[in-house]
Amino acid sequence: MDNIVAILKNIRPEFDYAGVDDFFARGMLDSFDLTVLVSSLEERFGISVDGVDIVPENFRSTEAIASLLRKYGATT
Amino acid sequence: MQINVLEYFVKTAERWPSKVAVADAQREWSFEYLSRRAEAIARQIVTLSNATNQPIAVYLPKTNEAIASILGVLFSGNCYAPLDVRAPVSRTQTILGQLEPILILTTRELGAQLQSECSDPLRFLILDDVQNNEGVIPDRWQQSIDTDPAYIIHTSGSTGKPKGVVITHRGVIDYIEWARDTFKIDEHCVIGNQAPLIFDNSTLDLYLCFACGATLHLTPEELFLFPVRLLEYLAEKSINFIFWVPSIMVAVADKSVLERVKDLRLEKILFAGEVMPAKHLNAWRARFPNSLFANLYGPTEITVDCSYYIVDRDLGDDEPVPIGRACRNSDILILNERNEACQVGERGELCVRGSSLAAGYWNQPAQTAAAFVQNPLNPHYPELIYRTGDLVFTNEKGEIIYVGRKDFQIKHMGYRIELGDIEHFALQVPGIRNSCVLYHMGKKEIVLVYEADANIDPGFIRTELGRNLPKYMWPTVFRFRPELPRTPNGKIDRQQLTTEYGK
Asked: How does the average pLDDT of chain B come out, rounded?
């Protein structure tokens, strides 16, 4: 989980992502951030995220991102 | 004879008053309502200023109100300059300083925010205060001629100063007449807009709505984050026409995504703004075998597009998608380094002549003179061409193929960016002594290589750059070097760094 928070923090240093329920509703991630986030996750965990998985439910919180990563067999 | 772009809108609003003209996330406006709103805004403008042919900034998010403001400015006999509400204030200030708009159209909230960060008083027209009262229909625009400016769009400049491209009524009419005929657009067209108003691709969407009575859906921007949601929106709104940037097309071009959503009615799929990879185009074509696909090409300075290729054959996944042939009433010259016309297969710079040429860069005579020059193939009388800086060649079929740039301009997510613009501001980040910004075409990454005493936290660099640069210009990859490689004459060795980090 700390990994994910660190990745997010690199993208938007002004926010504290830990424990937030919905990044999009709170304006903490936008289209440019999401693009960077997906490629950072792919690079860091050696996975390739499918287009159909790019839905808000999979990126709105650190828990959501962690469960997406689990689905791809990555260990966080 | 049509002189002013507003003639399109006035005729359409008379013909289909109750048809939906424009819809944003909140509301749908008919042509009649849009027209009433635009006239009300124009009445306010003319009571505040007697000027004509002067820029009026439109500082609004992409909403119905922004479209009404654009029309209102035109009704007042002036030209509109859309500004990015999400750009850092310092950049907006640079643009405003250069543009000297007679007014800024905005909301109370956005206006107050902008003013609070600017020391000089700005002249606003606050749209919250504009009532849709009945009144005289503003007619100042009817005195205009077709070489008068219709809009000014800003593009990145290589020294950290954006350039305001002045587009004439004649240029827009020339472009829209071509597009309407070529793609057979009529009132049944339902447009799913993607381009922000600060990006001139939006000109096609807006004016096909104004000229043909097409319905314009201002697709909520957050949908472009999520491919499946985006397609669901297209289905829900019965959208049959899109003109998008390849980056977005690529993001959606996943077989499982494209097939997930049923009931898509896309008939015409146009794209422009950057190179479209054939592989992704092929995925789209497989999903929409009966739809028309067209690759459009052109810099802002020649009114959106000057060439097009309607996909008419199977292209291999690695083949380049041609940018095709010149649009009707535009002429393309491909000139080699000796300023001679290139032969088939010979690389040269793409140059354009025609009614579509911009009038120049607003308040920037030197940059104007450098880019808009005498046609070297015509020594007989004054005739300007625009030098795009794009390198191309013509294949045996007579199609133009894009090769790359002569300089350090890139296209990222459809946005035109001068790498020098980013380097200029990277040097202002505390700790950075030298910088070189590269673009990795394959990964679509903006790579900042910087020289400093020690590695700097990327988050810090992003925050610092964010003071001056809009988000689409922020580097996505950061590489620290204690020293940047140099060429024998002491310049930063771009070649060397490109080999290491970019392609």
From this structure: 95
pLDDT tens, residue by residue, B125-151: 999 999 998 888 889 999 999 999 999
B55 with B70, same domain: the answer is yes
Smallest Cβ distance to B459: which of A9, A32, A55? Answer: A9
User: Does residue A76 lie in a domain region?
Assistant: no
Residue A10 to residue A6: CA distance in whole angstroms: 6
Which structural domain range is residue B416 located in? Answer: 409-501
Asked if residue B389 and residue B473 are part of one domain, the reply reads no
* CA neighbor of A65 nearest in space, from A29, A26, A31, A32: A29
Q: In this structure, are residues B244 and B250 in contact, taking their beta carbons and an 8 Å threshold?
A: no
Q: Which residues of B touch A38 (CB under 8 A)?
A: none
Chain A hits for B224, CB-CB cut-off 8 Å, are 31
Asked if residue B35 has pLDDT above 90, the reply is yes
Read off the CATH number of the domain in which A44 is found.
1.10.1200.10
Q: Averaged over B415-438, what is the pLDDT? A: 94
Same domain? B397 vs B494:
no
- Closest residue in A to B225 (Cα) is A31
Q: Quote the pLDDT of residue B503.
A: 60
Measure CB to CB from residue B460 to each of A13, A31, A34 and give the nearest one: A13
B221 interaction partners in chain A (CB closer than 8 Å): 31
Q: ipTM of the predicted structure? A: 0.76
Interface of A with B in 42-71 (CB under 8 A): 50-52, 54-56
Q: Which two tokens stand for residue B223?
A: 């949908």
Longest dimension (CA), chain A: 30
Domain count for chain B, please give it: 3
Nearest CA in chain B to A54: B226
Q: What is the pLDDT of residues A14-31, one digit of tens each?
A: 788 888 888 988 888 887
Residue B316 domain-assigned (yes or no): no
> Whole domain around residue A23: which residue ranges?
2-71
**pLDDT, tens digit (0-9, with 9 covering 90-100), for B370-422:** 999 999 999 999 999 999 999 999 999 999 999 999 999 999 988 999 999 99
The 3-class SS string of B225-259 reads HCHHHHHHHHHHCCCCEEEECHHHHHHHCCHHHHH
Read off the CATH number of the domain in which B414 is found.
3.30.300.30
Q: Comparing C-alpha atoms, which of B106, B110, B101 is closest to residue B125?
A: B106
Mean pLDDT, rounded, for B110-138: 93
Residues B394 and B419 in one domain: no
Distant-in-sequence, close-in-space partners of A43: CB < 8 Å, separation ≥ 6? none
- The C-alpha atoms of residue B223 and residue B44 are separated, in whole angstroms, by 34
B345 domain-assigned: yes
Interface test with B, best of A9, A26, A32, A37 (most B CBs within 10 A): A32
> Across the interface, which of A9, A32, A50 has its CB nearest the CB of B256?
A50
Total domains in the fold of chain A: 1
Q: Say whether both B29 and B140 belong to one domain.
A: yes
